[in-house]
Amino acid sequence: MPMPGLKDNKLANSILTKNEAIYNQGLQGGELNPEMLKAYELNLEDQLQNRDALRSIVFDYESELNIFSKEEEIANSVALENGTLSYDDLRKSVVSRLVNARKGVFNSAKSIYNKKKEELGSESFNLSGSQIASNNDATSTLNAWIEVGAIGKAKKFGYIVRSPKDRATQKKNGLRNN
Fold first, then answer.
1. Residue 93's domain spans which residues?
2. What three-state secondary structure class fits 177?
């Protein structure tokens, strides 16, 4: 099957950007709106009516979107060429997989949120998604500095939480250079 002439960067970027927003919503403990998923599905159906856009999403962005395995991609290409797979069937499969991927992205983030909430206790849990996601090795090092008093009292629930006011106070007291 001939590859599409132009990559549909706009559509692929839109899918990835919106998936990131859904991931962040899950990290913040939000809920997945079923009506939003229906709108997403209809939007994809509409945008993938163009065969070039459909082929571009399937064959140009296979590594970014992970819609099909390499074997499935080859089988789809052959099936489209010999007529055993219609573009309508391919579109339905792509839309279904992208909607399910969006659900998976949200559920993955929500499980991270729930795990952190369980670890820290739900009665006073109010961290943002970025604070939950930022608990990595660098944060652990900074948290250790806080525990020994090298940095002012910016610790909350085992995470560093700084405001611009804290930074200004640290700079004024000579604890911050910039």
1. 9-120
2. coil
